[in-house]
Amino acid sequence: MNIDELLAVLRLQATPKIGDVMAKKLISTLGSAKNVFKETKSSLLKIDGIGELLVKNLLDTSPLKKAERELQFIEKNNIDYTYFLDDSYPDKLKHCIDSPILLFTDGNINIKNQKIISIVGTRNITAYGRDFCNELIEDLAKHNPVIVSGFAYGVDICAHKAAIKNNLQTIGVFAHGLDEIYPKVHKKHMRDVIENGGFFTEFWHDEKPLRENFLKRNRVVAGMSEATIVIESAAKGGSLVTADIANSYNKDVFALPGRVTDVFSKGCNNLIKNNQAHLLNSSEDIVKMLNWDIQKKETVKQTQLFIQLNETEQKIHTYLQQNGKQLLDVIAMDCKIPTYQLSSILLQMELKGCIKPLPGKLFEI
Predict the structure, then answer these.
(1) What percent of the chain has pLDDT over 70?
(2) 351: domain range?
(3) 112 and 152 in one domain?
(4) Which residue, 35, 54, 267, 353, is the most exposed by fewest CB within 10 angstroms?
(5) How many whole angstroms separate alpha carbon 251 and alpha carbon 67?
(6) What pLDDT digit, counting tens, does each position of 53-103 carry?
């Protein structure tokens, strides 16, 4: 992305009432962020969902000045970033309608074609939760997953440290800008995380760790991974919000059960009781649910199915093999097949026994 386009993207971010969903719609409709600010008022009003207020905000030049200041910081400090249309943008997050249009990065992040799980939970982690978290990540290490969390107190920092100890890539998702550190006491862990992965944030460099930012951050934690794991949680808490978001994205959620009398197990127990999370006893529960246990010989056996598939069916099968279970609309978008045609094709593939439908219009091989 060139500097002019980056400036336009930043201006969109700075424009009041233009969130990520609307920004993506404008970019998709007009071809680029830069084109948005070339349109006339009458042309903008013709776009579905754009009213007088949004047009007024888009034509206002004051957000441009804010965008220019942020661009200066990015250039001066060589800040890396990934755009939602870039190949480097987290694949699974791309398919979340409200994902950030821009993520700022720090570190050595490489998540292309990687197994990714998010681990969240209470800031008041108990010995029970800490021991389970450490054991879980140690047991999963042979599958080489990327461990995502929020770099906060408790479960978050426990997950990051366990990942580093087991030579796994780990990513912290900030609820503030890269010029901030929260909590301050975790500054001592930043170098280790950067050397073993890094950080993502959608927030501009001087954005403070405000309460509402943590809620926004949670959708990135949930959206970029295959599954969200809740280690411990009270009856209310941010990790439950993350679990709820993951469910809304049709992602798997796991929760560690605890005694009914334990304050920091109530949230997990409720998730399990309300069928909002799978009960988590060991790493094997995750491995089996996410199909990480498929042996090479089984993979070879599956590739033989390609002999029976036409070119379009093979394209879909390869896509699902690489990306895991996906929504019908997501398959249609990524494979560039109209939904009405795709439904018929998927039915034929189901009859051939090479894919299976799941609740919520999900499909997997």
Answers:
(1) 96
(2) 296-364
(3) yes
(4) 353
(5) 34
(6) 999 999 999 999 999 999 999 999 999 999 999 989 999 999 899 999 999
